[in-house]
Amino acid sequence: MSGNITLTMIKPDAVKNNYIGAILAKINEAGFKIKAMKYTKLSVEQAREFYAVHKDRPFYNDLVEFMTSGPIVAAILEKENAVEDFRKLIGATNPADAEEGTIRKLYAESMQNNAVHGSDSDENANIEANFHFSKTERF
Ligand code: CMP
What we know:
This protein is of the alpha+beta class. Helix content is 40%, strand content 17%.
């Protein structure tokens, strides 16, 4: 099934603003199936590991602080061409640049507090899915 999954997190801003339901509805309406899901809160260690690829970027420490500031929803989503199609559904990283109707345009607060994460490649989708979920948590 390589190429058919992506990993999303509904981030602390969207959870705090009560957008979990609206975002999940958009995800289902766009044809994604939920393979795994959990409501959880990242530890600082987990957030640092998840975003390790950004560790030398100036926004890294703020990002870790934000991602550990409250609960998140993590999910594995399945669909043909999942990574690319999900990135279209969520829109640009900066909600100011996101297209109308995209999840970030509708629900994000800022470049950092941008409502949702979506994997950027098939390789990272698998790494990120394995980060959040064991085999017995996937259906
Ligand atoms: P995400 O798609 O989860 O990947 C990295 C995250 O870092 C991004 O969403 C934003 O939440 C955050 N971020 C903050 N500033 C920037 C920036 N200048 N460029 C990219 N990502 C940023």
